[in-house]
Amino acid sequence: MSGEEQQRAFPRRDAEGRILTLGDLLGVSLAGLVIGVLALLVFEWAFATIGDSGFGGTNGWLAVILPLWLFWDEFRAWEFGAARVVAALAGIALGVLAGLLAAGLASGLPALFTGALAAAVFTVVYAVVWFHGVHWLARRTG
Question: Cis peptide leading into 110, omega within 30 of 0?
């Protein structure tokens, strides 16, 4: 792929395959989250129509599968070192904490919606902490 083709692709990536901007990382990860939520809604609707269960009982945290796949790909694109490990661990800790807090605040909703909200909060917090953290630490550690 030439440099011009690589710049037109979304998300934009550098020569090592790392996403170039926070906006691209958030855009792709949130798009994956929306696809995950829509897939869960379809499965919920299908199971509710055949009478297997009520609507909304599935854990909405499952919607985070595609963003996690993207985050793993982004993690692997960075060279081995402390910067990527520390940034990933900080992003996971803060993202899970923020997601659980959001789920607790929305505890009256069905599990599907509570989990989806928590997954959305996790996705945004992780992406912001990861992106800024890994770039800042990589500059500091060389």
Answer: no
pLDDT of residue 48: 76
Write the single-letter amino acid at 89: L
- Structure tokens belonging to residue 39: 């897939």
pLDDT tens digits, residue range 12-47? 888 888 888 899 999 999 999 999 999 988 888 887
Cα–Cα distance, 46 to 40 (Å, whole number): 10
SS3 13: strand
* 67 vs 73: CA distance, rounded Å: 10
- Could you tell me the two tokens for 3? 């440099």
Largest Cα–Cα separation, the chain? 58
pTM of the model: 0.84
Evaluate whether 129 touches 94 at the Cβ level (below 8 Å). Answer: yes
The C-alpha atoms of residue 119 and residue 113 are separated, in whole angstroms, by 10
Adjacent-strand bridge partners of 13: 19
